[in-house]
Amino acid sequence: MKIIKGTFIVIGALALIASLMNFVAPKAVHAAAAALVVDVANTPTTAVPVVLAPAASQLYSSSCTHSGFATGEGASCSLTAPPAGKTLFIETVSIEAGFDNGDVVYNAFVTTTSDFQTNAVFIPMLQQGVLFGEAYSVGTAAVRVWVASGVTPSCFLSLNNISESGGFTCNISGYLAPAQ
Question: In this predicted structure, what is the pLDDT of residue 40?
């Protein structure tokens, strides 16, 4: 009990000293409080850096679909190539696939080929369940892949077996920038 009483006495004494300081030297108290305020100047010489989002005309989205896996375990579909004079920066890839129950996705990826060089970005796929006799898997990944003007990106998906039914849809999104 003595400790609590002593604590309240100290707190009261500090409050009394602070209020007396305000009456005795109000300018000093106001100067101390003003020193705690910080002004941020945003002028052309001391600009605060910002990130500008691309204009709506520079946003890119494309999707492709492939039906059936009856000719083999793998299948691909082509997306829209970036227009002339533009470089595509892919930021998101999403793939949804349906196939015979019992089959599983072996791998899924997006490819770009230019000057005999192929780049592939693999997309992790997760099994979702079975609906009307077909198994489903989905995968989404945040990526950073550039595609040169005139190069057509493609999606590829392969299964562990030949599937008599199903197919897949691939969606990519990103933005276009002037080609360098």
Answer: 62
Q: Are 96 and 135 in contact (CB under 8 A)?
A: no
Alpha-carbon distance of 98 to 102, in angstroms, equals 11
Q: How many helices (H) does the chain have, and how many strands (E)?
A: 2, 9
From the list 21, 17, 42, the residue with the least C-alpha distance to 31 is 21
CATH number, domain 56-178, options 2.60.120, 2.30.30, 3.40.1000, 2.40.30: 2.60.120
pTM: 0.66
The DSSP H or E segment spanning 32 is: helix 26-35
Strand spans (E) along 32-103: 59-69, 74-78, 86-100
Rounded distance between C-alpha atoms, residue 24 and residue 29, angstroms:
10
Q: Which of 121, 127, 105 is nearest to 155 (CA)?
A: 121
Residue 41 pLDDT: 66
